[in-house]
Design brief:
Blueprint lengths: L6 H11 L28 H6 L6 H7 L1 H6 L1 H16 L10 H16 L14 E8 L2 H4 L12 E6 L4 E6 L6 E8 L4 E11 L3 E4 L5 E9 L3 E6 L4 E8 L7
Antiparallel strand pairs: 1-2, 1-9, 2-3, 3-4, 4-5, 5-6, 5-7, 7-8, 8-9
Length: about 250
């Protein structure tokens, strides 16, 4: 996430910025910003409890079990979201996650994705605004090979559907940014083309033409977003400012 004041490190930053969408790695310009995300206890959902029954009632249960599942869909999503947030809370955005932790988080994310009520997130106003990264499997964003004091303390991503623009931002200590154009591929997935990097929030550098990727939004509500990149990375974010506008 952090950048040193030399040309080699500057180009390493572009790799990080694109990693939310996991575009091809860029030569040496490494930062957590190029990773575009557009991304414990076992779960015991209410639908599981409601569906349990005796063998004698099995035939009746098969015929009507869809009713409690339908009626409790909202509650199930809430429970799954709480389980997911509880699982990622101690993992330092994924930097401290073991392979077992990653598997657990991925399973919970997939369960939440399966009950998403928004099937076409690119058509939803809930996508607009500034999101804070809570968890990712992207090593280029986490930059665990660096000392903690050289890693960004917080990462954000902003998306505006009306202008098809997106922006990734690092906080302390280097405040790097990257902006990108989005091209919808379907109602859930976008192609990402990065156009410029801003080092330290001040020095603007044009992004290489190959700084591209794809991002699929797999879960969306007013508080939480789950995205998956074209390299298989998982991104989980929370909404922090729905009024934020990405520079055009």
């Amino acid at each position: 996430m952090a950048l040193s004041p030399n040309f080699h490190t500057i180009f390493a930053t572009s790799q990080y910025y694109s990693s939310f969408a996991s575009p091809p790695k860029l030569p040496a310009f490494h930062s957590s910003l190029t990773s575009f995300h557009f991304s414990t206890k076992p779960v015991k959902s209410n639908s599981y409890n409601l569906s349990r029954t005796s063998a004698s009632d099995e035939k009746w249960r098969v015929n009507v079990s869809f009713f409690p599942a339908f009626l409790n869909k909202g509650k199930d999503a809430k429970v799954l979201k709480e389980e997911l947030l509880e699982a990622i809370a101690p993992l330092d955005r994924g930097a401290d996650a073991t392979p077992q932790d990653q598997q657990r988080v991925d399973q919970l994310a997939r369960k939440l994705e399966a009950v998403s009520s928004i099937k076409e997130p690119l058509k939803s106003d809930l996508l607009n605004g500034k999101w804070e990264l809570l968890y990712t499997t992207s090593k280029s964003i986490l930059q665990t090979q660096r000392p903690k004091f050289l890693r960004s303390t917080t990462n954000y991503q902003a998306i505006n559907v009306d202008t098809l623009r997106a922006q990734n931002m690092e906080s302390w200590p280097f405040f790097n940014q990257v902006t990108a154009d989005l091209t919808p591929l379907n109602a859930r997935k976008v192609a990402v083309k990065f156009d410029s990097f801003k080092i330290g929030g001040l020095i603007r550098i044009k992004a290489p033409g190959r700084a591209r990727g794809e991002l699929e939004i797999t879960y969306l509500d007013g508080e939480l977003r789950i995205s998956r990149g074209d390299k298989g990375n998982l991104f989980i974010l929370k909404m922090v400012d729905p009024s934020y506008r990405v520079p055009v």
